Amino acid sequence: MLSKVLKPSNLKRLAYRLAKKLIIVPHHQLRETDTENTDSSWMSTGDDPQFIIHPARRIPTRTFKKGWYLLRVKMTEKNHQSHVAKLYSNLQKGELTTVDVPWHSTKFVNRLFYLESNNAMLRFDPCEAETEFTINTFMISKVPSFIAMRYMKQRLYKLLSHVDDVEEYLDTNRKLNGGKFIETVYEEYNKTFITGAMEKSYPFWVEFDEPRGLQKMQQTFTPEQSEVKFSIILPTYNTDPIYLKECIDSVLLQTHKNWELCIADDASTNVDTIKTLESYAQKHANIKLNLLSENGHISKSSNAALSMVTSDYVLLLDHDDTLPAHTLSFFAQAITDNANAKVLYGDEDKIDEQGNRHQPHFKPDWNPDLLLSQNYICHPVVYKTSVIKKIGGFRVGVEGSQDHDLLLRATAGLNHDEVVHLPFILYHWRVIENSTASDASAKTYTTDAGIEAIKHFLEQSGQNASVEKGKYPNTYKVNWALPDEEPLVSLVIPTRDGYDILKQCLESIYNKTSYKNFEIIVVDNQTTCEKTLGLFSEYTNSKANFRVLKWDKPFNYSAINNFAVSQAKGEVVGLVNNDIEVINEGWLTEMVSHVLRPEVGCVGAKLYYPNDTIQHAGVVLGIGGVAGHSHKYFHKSEPGYFTRLHLVQNMSAVTAACLLVRKSVFEEVGGLNEQDLTVAFNDVDFCLKVHTAGYRNLFTPWAELYHHESISRGEEDTPEKVARFNKESDYMKDKWKKLLTNDTAYNPNLSNTHENFSLK
């Protein structure tokens, strides 16, 4: 246990006592807005504002010496939004040494960080958006290692409260990863600044943001929606009368009044449960009650409730959950606005025994591959009655995953416009001890039932695929079979010099790839390095499936790849950066198994920085104005947003640092745009062309590679490069404006400035 607690007041005094005097200089995309204010007020003019920080001491002693430091900062943002700042402790190593500093307007943040060597300067990026802010306090204090250890462990004890023995947990991680104990503590401490950002801001969102969104939606209501009638089916069994009353009362309080409640009780033995149900049924004519004589489990009781339905639309409700008062009104309007809708669903959060709301799930629009990986839709769901009855209702034998099974069968063969998502919290899922809402592992049988549901779906739809458990409870991995004759894959790798990274890339592909039917096409863009030219000769002479194409023109990423693809022999082409390093030998098999599916367009891999943090897990549109990388900087061991870091899913775009696509699809959409996008965003543009052509782009976490991006990537550090980047950015915003402002694989309630799935 901790020998001494560092109270906030003690920490504040420590920071002030040890603080260094600093020189803070605006470096990039910053303009001072109020020179008369005693605080420092700024406007960020882009999505990459930067300050350079020096110790205010005379040369040559002006340096940040190796060791532990405490950053204490308070900033005020004009719109009181939350942001994630980044502190760069080594400018030469770039992204590899960043420290995340999530901050909320007007609140102090204390953040420990470690300098591996003496540094003359640090870089502080306050946000990743165009906004106005004031720096009220900014202090950096050097602290002893024992103070750093004490403070980090104090934070971990607080945030790892679900871990029985934090000391044992930390020691186990140290043994697994090697190294010193304080290094393990620091690694776990750093993780807490990524994963904790969203939960802290949800009460604020509920109080201020949600009402504005609801009001805006309600202004679109039309009189026709009142004609839509819902049948709410509610199976019950020994429900606590307190929660049962809250559940039924939430239906009675609906602002949309055209409904019937169909309750089927599964032979409850709790007398109070039965009395409560009978009382409501006697008082309300639109509440139907069927007291079953034998317990048949959830599927049979749900079908019994379904048999009482008389309306065109069915909504599922669990017996201890509740509906916000506007739920039916929102669904009714969505049905009115979407004539083809057959399945509709909304977002949800969880409520505890006292009704406190937490853990919101803001879902993407229709995402078929994510549904095969996890029941991301869960509830609330509204079905057209004809659809649910056509498939025979709930299937007996998959209890525990009956809702997932129903969704898979109901959505099979539906067009994209027949599945409608409402990005509003329309359901409160009750968290009680041993409930699935409280802990997915509380009902371990549900994962087995989910495997049976997906297996049945794959068999019924004629798919040559199998399914196995995923990394987390109630998650799954579908394995798509390859044809007996595996197709040739052409891996295109552009390069100029870069001997070390190219050698590493080629060696890893040849030595760590189990899929054997591939060729490598290196495109030489004016290489002059003799060692690199020698590497070309070495592989050309030793590998029959290796060749070099010459591109003796100025660098144009799009044109280079278009040229190489035109020369490719493979049915499948892979766009691969020269700084990629293979991790798992099944990476190419996994990606090919998806890209051969007729409905799939581009397939992207899971890429890590060398420090095992996420570089790419799919592209999210609109972040920073054009696009950002999902879960960037999360550690690879983290689950991500509702475990999405470990799930196959559809994404609007994926990075071309490692992207597979059928050559026929590449040619169908005209390849990469070599006129307007010579360097930046060409992969996003390409993916969106594939998307609009009717294909589904896809990210798989089961193809893992390192991306040594900071080694090969040039900075936008000259006026010419900045002008070119801005021009390409403006092109994307003009061409894809509608998609950039509404990524169907994301959610409009989530941030368009951060890549961590925090709230907007």
Summarize the helices and strands and which ones pair or pack:
Layout: H1 8-18, E1 22-28, E2 30-34, E3 40-44, E4 50-55, E5 67-77, E6 82-88, E7 98-104, E8 108-115, E9 122-125, E10 132-143, H2 145-159, H3 166-177, H4 181-195, H5 197-218, E11 230-236, H6 241-252, E12 259-265, H7 271-283, E13 287-291, H8 297-306, E14 313-316, H9 327-337, E15 343-351, E16 357-361, H10 368-373, E17 381-384, H11 385-390, H12 402-411, E18 419-430, H13 445-460, E19 465-469, E20 476-480, E21 489-495, H14 499-512, E22 518-524, H15 530-542, E23 546-550, H16 557-567, E24 572-576, E25 580-582, H17 587-595, E26 600-608, E27 614-616, E28 619-621, E29 627-629, E30 649-650, E31 658-662, H18 663-668, H19 682-692, E32 696-707, H20 709-712, H21 719-735, H22 737-740
Parallel strand pairs: 11-12, 11-14, 12-13, 15-18, 21-22, 21-24, 22-23, 26-32
Antiparallel strand pairs: 1-4, 2-3, 3-10, 4-9, 5-8, 5-10, 6-7, 6-9, 14-17, 15-16, 15-17, 19-20, 24-31, 25-32, 26-27, 26-31, 28-29, 30-32
Helix pairs in contact: 2-4, 3-4, 6-7, 12-13
